[in-house]
Write a structure and sequence with these properties.
This protein is an alpha+beta fold. Helix content is about 45%, strand content about 10%. It has one domain: Nucleotidyltransferase, domain 5, CATH 3.30.420.100. A hairpin with a 4-residue loop joins β1 and β2.
Length: about 190
């Protein structure tokens, strides 16, 4: 009997779902994992404990939940990601979770990425997650100032493209140029609810 020429990777690795090398390291840390998953429209954040019978989700936040606090559009941009992370952090503290470790899955670690913005939101809520300050974007970007500046520029230079680019904002009655102030209002609503 000959030796196998080709070793087939595990199914979840082939499908691009799980990096088992990273997962093993996270599991061996024996800390709650702060999992951030980004879709085309939403941000999903979970705090998960590892058990022999399977992972147990202790806290889960979907960026669509921000509607309850006054956030109306764009559930996957930087401000919405921060707010979802902040909400997850407050829910985790309510559950008694004080410390977690960031799990970004198969995403590549890049400066200013949304996964780190979500973790920053949880850190600001009071959850301890080890994270370097260099990898985070500026406070202006987290508040959405870059979106407001771009909307203002587009409105002055190309009104037709502005209407197309920010149609959901206009449709919901939200001025994209006032996004940082809306961010502050929603953040206060989240703080007051806990």
């Amino acid at each position: 009997m000959g030796k196998k020429r080709y070793r087939l990777p595990l199914k979840r690795r082939r499908e691009g779902i799980t990096n088992y090398y990273k997962r093993r390291k996270l599991i061996l840390s024996e800390k709650t994992r702060f999992i951030v998953r980004l879709t085309n429209r939403y941000v999903i954040i979970q705090l998960v404990d590892v058990h022999p019978k399977g992972d147990i989700t202790r806290v889960s936040v979907h960026s669509k939940e921000l509607e309850k606090y006054g956030w109306k559009v764009a559930y996957n941009n930087l401000p919405a990601t921060y707010l979802a992370g902040y909400l997850a952090g407050l829910k985790a503290l309510k559950e008694g979770i004080k410390e977690a470790i960031l799990d970004i899955g198969l995403r590549v670690s890049a400066k200013g990425a949304r996964v780190f913005v979500a973790a920053k939101g949880a850190i600001d809520a009071g959850l301890h997650i080890p994270l370097g300050e260099k990898i985070l974007p500026s406070e202006e970007r987290i508040r959405g100032q870059h979106i407001a500046d771009y909307a203002k520029l587009l409105k002055e230079t190309d009104p037709e493209r502005y209407e197309k680019q920010f149609s959901q904002y206009v449709k919901s009655g939200l001025d994209p140029e006032k996004l940082p102030s809306v961010f502050d209002i929603v953040l206060n609503n989240i703080k007051n609810s806990f």
